[in-house]
Amino acid sequence: MVRKIDTDVSRFKKIVKGQIKKNLKKYIKQGELIGKQGKDLVSIPVPEIEIPRFKFDFSKGKGTGQGKGKSGDKLGQGKPQDGNGEAGETPGQHILEVDVSLGDLAEILGEELELPKIEPKGNNKIKSVKDKYVGIRSVGPESLRHFKRTYRKALKRMISSGTFNPENPMVVPIREDKVFRSWSEKQIPQNSAVVIYMMDVSGSMGEEQKEIVRIESFWIDTWLRSQYKGLETRYIIHDSDAKEVDKETFFRTRESGGTKISSAYELCMKIINDEYNFAEWNVYPFHFSDGDNWAGDTEKCIEILTNDLIPRSNVFCYGQVESLYGSGKFIKTLEEHFADSDDVITSPISNKDDIYRSIKDFLGKGK
């Protein structure tokens, strides 16, 4: 039996989902959701949802609590006090903060951007153990007692023994009537993935460029977590040298000096070789830069990508964030060398408006 409130809740969720899809591009561009995370939920300001409420009539100044009244008078709070400003005739916008799970948010993202499901590799390599209820037994803890089967067994015993009274149909199970659920351990495939974010933090990468990377990485994480049971993230920053850092440091650090992209690729390869068997793990390297690189280093980057990093990855993604000081040459080099490769995806990102399209560039091939 479906309760009325369940139908209302379902309808409300559909309305919220529709509003999020309608405004998804705005949410992605502004990054409103990143600062409103709590465990597996995101708080989203959803506009234009009308909430039922009582409305008072201040025009007559009478009714309950306002002196003598009669049946049918509207409840009031007295005459409104004078205020500053003129009255307006347009309705105000109703904003409601709604908690949405990251799973639902990923589903909306996938539908709106038409993202294909990812076919992971290594799905028979990594196993996890799951308890599954498979039968019934006569012993066990009370928490696993099967109520219906216990009741049925007790009822049969009382009817067969002639102790059941239809006028007073009370069934009291005894110890021999009780049955309990039994379980067994089952190994199930466990797909795991690692995302390795690399970012140029030299002087030409400013706060605006890092904010673009921060917003885009949030949505990339949201989608990939919906595709994999286990997702790990690692962070590498580089200028002329590279080092691994935590997430907070990744988005806050700013260095000065030159840029050697190969230092980040070498460290990325070391992490993969030491900790992530690429035959069992789904590996996603993402590199964000403004396109500047020391001229003598680009050839080395191509060599590392061709011989090591790309063969060990599901796909290699490079996002070039436009800045006033970056030359923008590196993306052209990648596009020339890997023009016929589906394993390398490049995406130019001029500003926050481009994030929406860039996410589809990176995730749209389903690799």
Structural description of this entry:
The protein is built from ten helices and eleven strands. The protein has helices at 4-22, 24-30, 102-113, 147-161, 207-227, 247-252, 261-275, 298-309, 330-337, 355-363, and strands spanning 37-38, 41-47, 95-101, 127-137, 180-189, 192-200, 230-238, 242-245, 281-289, 316-321, 344-349. The chain has a six-stranded mixed β-sheet, with helices on both faces. A three-stranded antiparallel β-sheet has the order 1-2-3. Strands 4-5 form a two-stranded antiparallel ribbon. Helix 7 (261-275) packs parallel to helix 8.
Keywords:
34% helix, 3 domains, six-stranded mixed β-sheet, 367 residues, Rossmann fold, three-stranded antiparallel β-sheet
What's the assembly state of these chains? single chain
Structural class: alpha/beta
**Tally of helical runs:** 10
Number of strands: 11
User: Any guess at the CATH architecture of the largest domain?
Assistant: 3-Layer(aba) Sandwich
Order of helices and strands: HHEEEHEHEEHEEHHEHEHEH
Biggest pleated-sheet summary: 6 strands, mixed
Structural Rg: 31 Å
Question: pLDDT average, as an integer?
Answer: 78
CATH H level of the largest domain: which superfamily?
Answer: von Willebrand factor, type A domain
* Shape category: flat
> How far is the N terminus from the C terminus?
43 Å
Helix percentage range: 25-40%
Uncertain stretches of 5 or more adjacent residues: 90-94
